[in-house]
Amino acid sequence: MKKLGKIYLLLVLAFLYVPIFVLIVFSFNETKSRSVFSGFTLDWYVRLFHNRIIISSLVNTIIIAVAASIVSTVLGTFAAIGINSMRKLPKSVIMNITNIPIIDPEIVTGVSLMLLFVFFAARMNLEFGFVTLLIAHITFDVPYVILNVMPKFNQMDPHIYEAAQDLGCSPLKAFRKVVLPEIMPGVVSGFLMSFTYSLDDFVVSYFTTGSTSQTLPITIYSMTRRKVSPEINALSTIIFVVVVIVLIVKHTIENRAARKNAA
Amino acid sequence: MENIVSLKNIVVEFEDSERILKDISLDIKDKEFVTFLGPSGCGKTTTLRIIAGFLEPTSGDVFFEGKRINGVPPHKRNVNTVFQRYALFPHLNVYENIAFGLRVNNVPEKEIVSRVGEMLEMVNLMGFEKRSVNRLSGGQQQRVAIARALVNRPKVLLLDEPLGALDLKLRKEMQIELRRIQQELELTFVYVTHDQEEALTMSDSIVVMNNGNIQQIGSPTDIYNEPVNAFVADFIGESNIVNGCMPQDCVVEFTGRRFECVDKGFSPDETVDVVIRPEDVKVIPADKAKLTGIVESVVFKGVHYEMIVDGVDHKWVIHSTKAEPVGSMIGMTFDPFDIHIMKKTEEA
Amino acid sequence: MKLKYFSAPYLVWMVVFIVVPLLMIAYFAFTTDDGGLTIKHISDVGQYANIFVRSIWLSLVATAICLVVAYPVSFILSRMEKHKQGTMLMIVMLPMWMNFLLRTYAWMTILGNNGILNHLFGLVGLGPYKLINTSGAVVLGMVYNYLPFMILPLYSVMEKIDKSLFEAASDLGCSSGQILFRVVIPLSMPGITSGVTMVFVPAISTFIISRMLGGGSNLLIGDLIEMQFLGNAYDPHLGAAISLVLMVIILVIMTVMNQFDPDDQVLM
């Protein structure tokens, strides 16, 4: 029974990983063939780094992700503080609306923002591009920050805020000295989540970007529309390596923290 | 002794116009150990929060050393609170938790070291300075909470059911400990609990509350021996409470029989609550008694037996050093001064 | 100072960028270009019934496959030794961190007419088969992309099931099969409902997977919407109407799903 389970797990893992390994292997393929490996080369990597569009869209993606996640974290943390101190009814109404961008299909979020931006573009001096992209990213990022911070308030003993005031802190100081340290883990994970969602987003960006600000996923999409472009394989390999490194680092840090807590 | 805290006509209404406190007036004397006692929802914690400043009364005045302090925020009041479940700061260690109030008030580092040291000694936590508060036992957390409040040298310490989360043995120890600290430091303690035994053991004075009203204020002995109404009698210790009426002075009628008592001043045939403590019910042979009943159960309680006796209209609780066999018919009688007659309260 | 005012900037943001855009969809769906009320666009959606049926069908099939494949994976994960669980979960979730366009592109390479699979078939004298641009390829793409969305919520529910419950069940006479149906499945119901939603919603609304793996012949609702806004068929009124119908379908299906969830909570 146990052995059967292991075999099953291996099969599923193979299903998940084989396509990625195919990309990696063919990123070193000499010819453009997608089925026969004819010889080793690093040409595609060289071409990738000389591809202006890819490099500039990568820079764009990082700028957008950093800006959107910072704004979302500030906006979302303040929102969570406020929402948490509300009464039940307004709280649940606001939380339900906040959940919309998470539950709704991405395409609906993208299309609805596009309609809004078209409306503004027609009446004000708004162009599709960096600004619209940033607004769209913040819009789908903030809910993740709020959802990460809110539970921290529930886990927190509500009396510590009063205790700090009782011991001489003004309300603002009490917040800074005891509440903020308690919700900080939620703020950080909210930030990281927004950052990854922004880096990775295609659908919403696709509907809200202009010709000036391409993000990496949009560039990838236009590359896949062309018949054969082995640079994608090279790009996938690099992204895969980065992801593996980031996850291993994250995993090690978490493990160390867990062990420290257990000790 | 003078009053350190006074409440005058305090009313608290919440937004749905529910009345939590209905016109409470109260004086707390300096250096006194005062306990607010009552069932949950009676308003005792609300009263405490008004003194601490976490809650503003809808109407009424709060005085501290004779000065009106309505609207003064908690951090500017010379009182400190020990919270239910302690509310220790999880991101700070024992030392920093205790030092918190001093740091906030910019006390010089040297003084912080000595004052925190004193407190650690007082609550027996030397050597635990660097320990994370999450890794302390309930009793230790409790001590940190007390030290953290007292290090600021408040004139009044407010304690909100501080022992509720501890087991019985620890609770008894902490009761003695708290009383020692209060006497040693000559402070005013305002203590909230729903445990009548705790209130009786520790307090100089007890404020019994129910439904947002003060029922009775008095010393533990007064409250036990002379409860003013059926609620207090029932809440403090066990009681037999039966409906009765007063046909004339010094005569009370209940369960269909007339008994001699010492109370007077009721209007003729006024209905009253008759309260008799279980230890005041005397067991006599059934054939010599006005009131009889059948023993339903007998439980040995260490010092005495507790018997439940079915007397047709009422099940009597009797504490006696002698057990009667279950199922036997016994007689019951009472001394006139053990029969307490109380006016019916509105709520009852 | 009232803490609740801290949320004011977000509330403004929320109204302008979440509520108003959704209202605009509703507005566009029910109006003509000159602003007159109409239900023409909504009734026009009826012409695309076949696309709706295909979308719902393909995404239901993909969701069912995900559930069947993921359930044992999550169970095995949740019963591993504690310190191995974290690492194993990371390995299972890792592919999801790759951009989904790249993951889908990988399948284009594999399933293509000159792709690896047909090459391998050719070596043993079979094929070539038409693998890509079929509805099967679309379902495969959905399963591949969204499988982790099913594994994660299932795992997080199962991980909390105390082992002693299984022991108690077998002590009370349950066979392994009975334990599965009487203990594991009922207890993992919240994970099933949230996993199903997390797979079904993106699957029914995707336009990338169908475009990359389905060719032109397997249009889904997502493609239809995309075409109305960015494609040649430009008609935002019709696009808004289709989006509205899509949201209603999702709402109905999620309401049905929530009936199975005893706690009525969506696990994220």
Could you describe the 3D structure shown?
The complex is a heterotrimer of chains A (263), B (348) and C (268). Chain A has eleven helices and no strands. Chain A is mainly α and 263 residues long. Chain A folds into two domains: 1-41 and 230-263, no CATH class; 49-228, MetI-like fold. The two termini of chain A are 35 Å apart. In chain B, 24% of the residues lie in helices and 34% in strands. Chain B has eight helices and 20 strands. Chain B has helices spanning 44-52, 94-104, 109-122, 138-150, 168-185, 196-202, 220-225, 230-235; strands at 3-13, 19-29, 33-37, 59-64, 67-68, 79-82, 156-160, 188-193, 205-210, 213-218, 240-248, 251-254, 257-260, 270-276, 282-284, 291-300, 305-310, 315-320, 329-333, 340-343. In chain B, strands 6-7-8-3-9-10 form a six-stranded mixed β-sheet, with helices on both faces. A five-stranded antiparallel β-sheet of chain B has the order 13-12-11-14-20. In chain B, helix 2 crosses helix 3 and helix 2 (94-104) runs parallel beside helix 4 (138-150). Chain B is elongated. Chain C has helices at 8-30, 40-45, 49-78, 82-93, 100-111, 116-123, 135-158, 163-171, 176-187, 189-205, 208-213, 221-229, 236-259. The longest helix of chain C is centred in the first third of the chain and has 30 residues, at 49-78. At the A-C interface, helix 1, helix 3, helix 4, helix 5 and helix 6 of A face helix 1, helix 3, helix 4, helix 5 and helix 6 of C.
Keywords:
heterotrimer, A: 263 residues, mainly alpha, MetI-like fold, C: 268 residues, 13 helices
